[in-house]
Please model this.
Amino acid sequence: MSESSHRRVSRRALLQSAAFASVAVSLPRFARAGNEPIVEVASGKLRGASGDGVLIFKGVPYGSSTAGEHRFKPPRPVAAWTGVRDALAYGHAAPQGNSLTPPPSRGGGISLVGEGATFSEDCLCLNVWTPAADSAKRPVLVWLHGGGFASGSGASALYDGTNMARTQDVVVVTINHRLNVFGHLDLSQVAGRDYADSASVGLLDAILALRWVKGNIARFGGDPGCVTIFGESGGGRKVSVLMAMPAAQGLFHRAVVESGSALRMDSAAVAAERANKFLAALDIKSNQIDQLLALPADALLAAVGKATEGTGQFRPTTGAPSLPAHPFDPQAPAISAGIPMLIGTNLTEASYALGRDPKVLALDKAGVLERIKRAVPEKDAANVLATYERLYPELAPSDLLFRAITDRGYFLDSTIQAERKAALGRAPAFLYSFYWQQPLAAGRTHVPHGSEIAFVFNNVHLARGENPQALAATMCAAWAAFARTGNPSTAALGKWVPYDATNRPTMILDRESRMQNDPRGEQRKLMLAFGSQQYAAREVAPM
Model:
């Protein structure tokens, strides 16, 4: 796929740009041309759209192209433009390889990059949903999409901010940024000072987007002094890492981590091994970085598989200039001690990946035991399985596997992150567990990775399960309350008690939501005895 094939410009968009160019110079910071809102930001004027009581601006550039000589370098602000720029369609997603086909278990096969997505290194863009572009100071929620550090975009229908903005009177922003090898190739040890921060540029993009929010969001009715970053899966990991990045401090005021508690990132040794394997796959020497900059994006993506085999996906490196220490190890980052956090996971995260495989669903006890041996010390696997059989005697073997693998990774890490955050004593951490059941097969149910997203955004038409509207309204309101005040308590939920290491209060989000002290405490203690999987020298491969 060539760079030119990634660009799609509609004839309608070109005609609209031409039609309004003659009146652009006379428009104030906010105006309307017919039903189309026009907002002036620092770099120029934007034409958006109106719908369902919300103003929508898509594909808004916050940075310049990252192609060619700008690859693997920190991002640059977008250049100013003249006239009125259309913000009517999503911008390019970052190049990301072949991980674009959505799994059918999430929302009925919803694309994680957006329908009809295009891909380009000119991908630094964002989207804004606001009830009104006025002088009100609404809370701002900036969404960091999932897909690890390797795939996805802010244009998925799952992340549409219309309902959240309208029902909660908030401003919602989603962003695109560099991913995969383009965002996190660590060239610091092979290419010198010019690339000292190349492993961090994907998150430096996110920081540039937050700077754009700080400088421009007031023109969309948002409060730059009340910004929440939130994300799921890889987005939660990005939120975790931004908490530890000095350059991000002061740009956000609350943080939400959904199913993505990142305690540690890569060591310099693992990142260097991956970079050397990547260059070898392309037959490029460390003194030939100019050749790396000249290759088409497809060529770089084709070498990713060989580079990540045995080393894990491209992701930030601890010890880089922008990320001096692990995000939440051995403790929560002191530089963000005053920022409240909302952290949580879903009951059977592992059923997202494993629950679609008929072979997994058909596993017997022996097969489940072999799978558990991959996650815990082999000598302890039988005891782990016996514990889950005792706690859940009604569950099928594969359902026991979903519970055990979830508790071993996502759930354990969320409790560690919340405990370490609470231990700083400056701002609270609030913990949740999402229990809403979805249909799986043969009358069985599960709560897979990502299933809470439709509830958070109040996109209830994308939620699976029976009558989800009430819980969606409750969760969307709780996230908005947290963004507004730093506390997710609401009239519907009651008091949400902050987390502590003694009682471990946790909000169970379900048809009947409730506070519960140390839910799944026996499982947590069992898995904690093995330590977090993030202490492994290399990223743990999916089960």
Summary: The chain is about 30% helix and 15% strand.
